[in-house]
Structures are given as C-alpha cells and as structure tokens.
Write a structure and sequence with these properties.
Elements: H1 3-9, H2 13-29, H3 34-46, H4 50-62, H5 72-84, H6 88-103, H7 115-128, H8 132-145, H9 150-162, H10 166-179, H11 184-191
Helix pairs in contact: 2-3, 3-4, 4-5, 4-6, 5-6, 6-7, 7-8, 8-9, 9-10, 10-11
Length: 192
C-alpha cells in the first residue's frame, strides 16, 4: 500500500500513519529486510516526510551485500531518490547493486530497468560526488553497451575537457564524429 494509493482511495491519514508505524516496527525487528526498508522509505516520502525517508534510504544503502529482497527497479528508485537529494555517496552502492542484478539477466526481458540508463545515472552520481575516474568508467561501460550513443561521447568529452584532459576529450569527439559525420555542432567542438 503506498501513500499515493491511499490518497487516491480516500484512506485516512491516520491509517497511513498506522501503516508507517507498522513497517517501522517490522524493520526494527528485522533490519535486514531491505524490501521493508524500501517500502518504508517510499511511504515516508509520499507522506511528505522527506528527511525520514532519506534516512531510511541511507540505511538501505548501508546494508552489506546485494539486496535479496529487492529487484533492480526498486534499487534504482532508491538510488535516484538519494542522488536527487544530493546523497551521492549513498546512491552509488545502490546503483552498483542494481547493475549487478540487471547484468545477471542478460536478456533483460524480466527487468524493467535499462543497463545503459543505470550506468549513466551511476556516472552522474560518481561525478557529483567528485569521483571523476569512476564517473568516466561508468560512462565507458554505458558506451560498451550502446557504442552508437552520440550523447555519451559528448558527455565524456565534456567531462574530460573539464578535468584538463583535452587530448582524451578530442578523441571522444572524434569517435562521436564517426557516428554522426555531418553533425555541425561536433565539427565546431572539434575545431575548438
């Protein structure tokens, strides 16, 4: 039961609070139940208690190992919530756990999560946390998955340029030109 569903169905705020309290008690008794932590975080967020929701998501991120009770979509949602809140150091391990789950399903037919999007989000979280090397490595993994993504080469070039690696940035732009040889903006970027 989510708070959004509760609001749509006309469920009282008192009942919502009881559901949250019940989940809190359950999590206290079994703190390793990542699925309960995730649901509690979502409910707290949807009820407007963002600080408590983020604290629960941080607790989820701090759990050791892969989250056996969560699927990749749940991990991605938790990671994105932390990332948007600026808690990049907590988002990164959740992105990695989601990537491992998606990678374990090579067909990807059972998971509603795109591996490339996970790598892109991971790269952004790493970049935002100041870990430029990991950001570039994650972006490179996205390029391994989809080597024809012009936007990824452009982002890579921008990041390399901003970190003072002009020659590597130029190489990324040249690879982008191989994909889109008539792109005037790319030609302009290479000329600079």
């Amino acid at each position: 039961l989510s708070a959004n569903l509760a609001a749509q169905e006309g469920i009282s705020p008192v009942f919502q609070a009881e559901v949250i309290q019940g989940l809190q008690r359950a999590v206290e008794k079994q703190p390793d139940r990542s699925d309960w932590l995730f649901r509690l975080g979502i409910l707290l967020s949807e009820s407007g208690n963002q600080p408590a929701a983020l604290q629960v998501m941080r607790q989820l991120a701090a759990q050791p190992g892969d989250q056996a009770h969560l699927d990749a979509a749940d991990l991605w949602q938790a990671a994105r919530a932390l990332h948007v809140a600026g808690d990049h150091q907590y988002a990164v391990p959740l992105y990695w756990r989601a990537i491992r789950l998606v990678s374990a399903d090579p067909g990807g037919e059972t998971l509603p999560v795109n591996l490339v999007d996970l790598y892109i989000d991971l790269s952004k979280a790493c970049k935002a946390s100041g870990d430029n090397d990991s950001a570039l490595q994650a972006l490179d993994q996205a390029l391994v998955c989809e080597p024809q993504r012009l936007d990824l080469y452009q982002t890579r070039a921008d990041w390399l340029q901003s970190s003072g690696q002009a020659s590597a940035a130029l190489e990324s732009l040249k690879k982008a030109l191989e994909i889109a040889p008539t792109n005037a903006g790319l030609h302009e970027s290479v000329a600079r």
